[in-house]
Fold:
Amino acid sequence: MWSQLEIEDPVEVDSLVNMLKMAFSFDNWTKVLSLSKNLHILASQIHNEHIQHELFGTPISKKKMNRSIVFYFGYSYLMKGVAHQKLKQYPEAMKCVNYYSDLSWINDSSEIGLKTVNDFKLYAKANSLTLELLNGNIDFLAEYIHLLKTNQQETLPGLLTLLESALNNNFNIDNELNLFLDHIKVDGLYEDRISSIYYIHLIQMLAIYEFKNDRYIEAIDYALQLLTYSDHVGDDSTFKKSIALFESFRPYASRAQLDGYMTILANIFKLTNEYEESIHLTLK
Structure:
């Protein structure tokens, strides 16, 4: 199993990156930690080989890399930090952030290498603010909002951080949410899996946030939106969660929302029955 990969196995460094992305997409933080360690070991081997070659002319093994060596060091600790964050191990996550906040010691003075160093410095700044907010330090909220405004590609994960911080620490972030929600592709399908996962978590957390703030109609609307979206993308796990979420909100639902819920389920069952009937017809 690739979750138990040993570094002597014949694996390219970019294959490890792809494995990490896969483990991340399935919220498998144990695998993320294991693969991050392997990626760092392999990056260190490659880096040391190049240093030995420059100093002593020793041969270099032909390990293929699609990116600067800086990226692999930074990404290994970035993903390790994310895993610790998701496991609510914030001190360990902050140690990882400190590691990739300055990668200038790595032996790559190329233009892309220097750019990658600066990229991870920005990631470190953003993720240190993330950890401060998750720890309940609301004094960092304004700085975090400014960072999101200047880096719109981080809007989805940024909103998740805001909502998680608010729910865990009883923040009110109504004004902050209003700044960004108009930019979210509501009811739209995200093509890449990572953005789709972010979006699903966002809608789920918005439903809980609205319910916690006694805005029941809005909370139930988000639950219905989650139900529809999870069916569209074929996410059975989220589909089940969205049904459980709606049922927990049911006492507060309006007649229109109850009717909408039943209509969504009826349409899904109708499509399922039509699919099953087509199979039976084919088999005859």
Q: What stands out?
A: Confidence is low (pLDDT under 50) at residues 1-10, 275-284. The radius of gyration is 23 Å.
